[in-house]
Amino acid sequence: MPVFDSRIDAGSPEFAANRAAMLDLIAGFRTLEQRIRDLSAAKRAQFVARNQLLPCEWLALSLDRDRIPRARPMPR
Fold it and tell me: Whole-prediction pTM value?
């Protein structure tokens, strides 16, 4: 396999600044993901009572055809 030559200087101040900025953006995204998970967990009982999938479960099933949903009892 040929060697890939790069002109990126991983030790430069610009690289460090770009890396720090990107890590800040990733941390912000992870914070938003956690807020969504927390809200979803808080609403779980409502969805289960209506025999519905949570939006994140519905999306996961839509994107992963091999995943089998867990059975829920029908409401009486």
Answer: 0.58
